[in-house]
Design a protein that fits this description.
The structure holds two protein chains of two kinds. In chain A, about 70% of the residues lie in helices and about 5% in strands. Chain A contains eleven helices and four strands, in the order ααααβββααααβααα. Chain A has helices at about 1-30, 40-55, 60-85, 90-115, 140-160, 165-175, 175-180, 185-210, 220-235, 240-260, 265-280; strands at about 120, 130, 135-140, 215. In chain A, the strands form two sheets. Chain A has a two-stranded antiparallel sheet. Chain A is globular. Chain A starts with a helix and ends in a 14-residue tail after the last helix. By secondary structure, chain B is of the alpha/beta class. Chain B has a single domain (about 1-85, about 155-230), classed as 3-Layer(aba) Sandwich (Rossmann fold), CATH 3.40.50.300. In chain B, a hairpin with a 2-residue loop joins strand 1 (about 1-10) and strand 2. Classes of the chains: A mainly alpha, B alpha/beta. The interface between A and B is medium-sized, with 16 and 25 residues.
Chain lengths: ~290, ~230
């Protein structure tokens, strides 16, 4: 029973990683850049929800909505101001800019919200699930987080395979020039991907803080890096890969925390990344890159 | 229909296109021939808005398109089939065709799709197949079919015969002629000068970024310099 509970908790944490990793992987797929500021968008999303609920007294759902809208706008603005001017610059420049944006967001949060941790009150006010005569307890947050991840995955899959915009997005990520020759506006497509990724980050931030209620300006950085690890584990650029990588990583982390050592859990997570990169650098569902000779 | 006047294109410090001017009239097949690196593909990329000229003018159907975005140029009916086909390898054949129709109103797509399948019955057979698994000839057909989905008034083909077996080359050139008969004006870039000139109304010869010679397809085909340089004597 205890193992099962741990696995479910791991899947829940992993679902958060998966939702964040989707943003990483989609942005990488289309803009060929690693948006290291993505983790901090989670933190911004959580703060927006926190302020809306705790300071403005809005209902939880309104807080979520406000947070998603806020982060979507933030994603578009950051892309427009920081990354778009570097569209044809070497990738190292873009990477460093992304790290800069990350510091900027963290420090902006530090100035606006202060350095003391805020206690995030869970937006999910449902009783925990009792199974097997009470021997297995699953928190409502865990259930809803996993559900949210599944819904987001299904929605994104339908979006990218059935809609014109979604197909255009795949076309851009495969071949940007050819997509332009089809009449697809690459800039607005990239902008849309940043919008989707950042909106999802807001949801991830709220779900994560509902389970782990300490909110600080640096709250987003560790989950951000782990979600990046998850994206690489699953195969960066692949949407199902991000989901699989996220859930696996969450389960590994929780199991390591429970059965190996609380302190070493993070080390185990990153060790998995290193091993993965050694044996299958393209990730679980990534396509191996054939070098042209 | 298309008039290009004195365009100059640079890749960084390299002056790739030098004062190139040429014209394509309604209903023509115009061939742009020349060796590797002569600037043929660069010229097409400039016309479709992927590259920019620093001077001169590009007019298409009486509109200045030199400063127009690539998307708008496609919308106006100037459609480019790039070198190396550049189909979306991981998408299905039909999804590729869908992307070709990106700028088109929804209600015209079904009709266009039928027309493309008439020209390329092979694509219909394989419409659920992942495009990357098609053979080279089929991929070229897909690239051309995809461009047709955009309802081109002028179709620019960059090396459609590249890497294909002789029998397929013949087939592709037959299709080009069929498209032309059906009313599409064609600008054809080719290294296979023999094949291109024999179907062309007019041709231009490019060398290291400039147009060095022009004439009707037949004139160029029988021109001594052209024969020596591109037709093996």
């Amino acid at each position: 029973m205890e193992v099962l509970a741990n696995i479910i908790n791991g899947a829940s944490l992993g679902s958060v990683y998966a939702i964040i990793a989707l943003g990483y992987t989609m942005v990488y797929g289309i803009a060929k850049m690693l948006n290291f500021a993505h983790g901090d968008v989670i933190m911004v999303g959580a703060y927006i929800c926190f302020c809306a609920v705790s300071y403005l007294g809005l209902p939880a759902l309104a807080g979520v909505l406000l947070s998603v809208v806020g982060c979507t706008v933030l994603g578009i603005v950051v892309e427009r101001l920081a990354y778009k001017p570097l569209r044809n610059a070497p990738s190292l420049n873009v990477l460093i800019t992304a790290i800069g944006v990350s510091y900027f967001l963290q420090n902006a949060a530090l100035i606006i919200m202060g350095s003391d941790p805020k206690s995030f009150s869970s937006i999910i006010a449902l009783p925990a699930l009792q199974l097997f005569d009470g021997r297995l307890t699953i928190s409502a947050t865990a259930v809803i987080t996993i559900l949210a991840c599944v819904i987001i995955m299904v929605a994104l899959t339908l979006f990218t395979t059935k809609t014109k915009m979604g197909k255009a997005m795949r076309a851009c990520s495969e071949d940007r020039d050819a997509a332009q020759l089809m009449g697809i506006n690459v800039n607005s497509t990239i902008s849309m991907v940043f919008a989707i990724g950042s909106g999802l980050a807001a949801i991830a931030g709220i779900l994560m803080c509902s389970a782990y209620p300490t909110l600080m300006p640096t709250t987003g950085s560790m989950p951000g890096i782990k979600a990046f690890t998850a994206a690489v584990l699953g195969g960066i650029g692949s949407i199902p890969g991000a989901a699989l990588g996220g859930v696996l990583l969450g389960i590994i982390e929780i199991l390591a925390r429970a059965y190996i050592s609380t302190q070493l859990a993070d080390a185990v997570v990153f060790a998995v990344l290193i091993v993965m990169l050694l044996i299958r650098p393209a990730g679980l569902l990534g396509k191996p890159v054939n070098e042209k000779v | 229909m298309l008039s290009v006047y004195n365009i100059n294109v640079w890749y960084g410090a390299i002056h790739a296109i030098k004062n190139v001017s040429f014209e394509v009239n309604d209903g023509e097949i115009v061939a742009l021939i020349g060796a590797n690196g002569a600037g043929k593909s660069t010229t097409l990329k400039t016309l479709s808005g992927l590259l920019r000229s620093r001077s001169g003018s590009i007019k298409f159907m009486d509109q200045d398109i030199m400063h127009m975005s690539a998307e708008k140029i496609v919308e106006n009916g100037l459609v480019h089939v790039p070198e190396g086909r550049r189909i979306f390898q991981q998408m299905t054949v039909e999804e590729n065709l869908d992307m070709g129709a990106y700028t088109q109103p929804r209600d015209t797509i079904a009709g266009n799709l039928e027309r493309v399948y008439e020209h390329f019955p092979r694509l219909k057979e394989r419409r659920r197949q992942i495009a990357g698994t098609l053979s080279g000839g089929e991929q070229q057909m897909l690239a051309m079919g995809r461009a047709l989905m955009a309802n081109p008034k002028l179709l620019m083909l960059d090396e459609p015969s590249m890497g294909l077996a002789p029998i397929l080359v013949e087939q592709i050139f037959e299709i080009i002629q069929a498209l032309h008969k059906a009313g599409t004006t064609i600008l054809l870039v080719e290294q296979n000068a023999q094949a291109a000139l024999s179907i062309a109304t007019r041709g231009y010869v490019m060398e290291t970024g400039t147009v060095t010679l022009t004439g009707s397809g037949q004139e160029l085909l029988h021109n001594d310099d052209v024969r020596k340089a591109y037709l093996g004597g």
